[in-house]
Amino acid sequence: MKNLNSLRDKAYQCAVVHGWHEDNLSNEHFLCLVISELMEAVEADRKGSHADIEAFNKYENRIDFEENFERQIKGSVEEELADACIRLLDLAGLRNVDLGEVTLDELKSSEGFFDWTFTESMFFLVCNLTNTDFIETHSFDSYLRVALMEIMGFCVKKDIDIFWHIEQKMKYNELRPFMHGGKAY
What we know:
By secondary structure, the chain is mainly α. The protein has helices spanning 4-17, 27-46, 53-58, 65-72, 77-94, 104-108, 118-129, 132-137, 140-157, 162-175, and strands spanning 2-3, 101-102.
């Protein structure tokens, strides 16, 4: 059982400390950034860039965490999918959305992705993120939870330990400078 509200709070607090909530921005702004992370995952997949967890673990106590992360994980499909989840967790924190808990079995049983290619799966996720009909017939809270569950469900079906990747990326984000050294958003 994974407490998503705990991850939500950690993602949100890190974003606040790093200056990402200085302005009152729309939900659409934040959702566009989620989509951009999914597109970065597509680019990483096109390049064949995957996290080298074995090498990361091998050097875990031998070199600086930040350097190890940048060598073994940065720019990978897994990191970008973790970023998409972190952005949804952050938005949930900003809007005080209760995400509850989730189990791996729940994620494994999620629908979709069958024998789709990576790009078809990302297209499906983006289409669902831009489906405003869902927001009109359900609550925004439900919309955010479903979006997060779909990305996590995809990862579980592809044998990506998304919770491990989220935790590593959050640890890395905590080390980054204010507004990541000068990004506008």
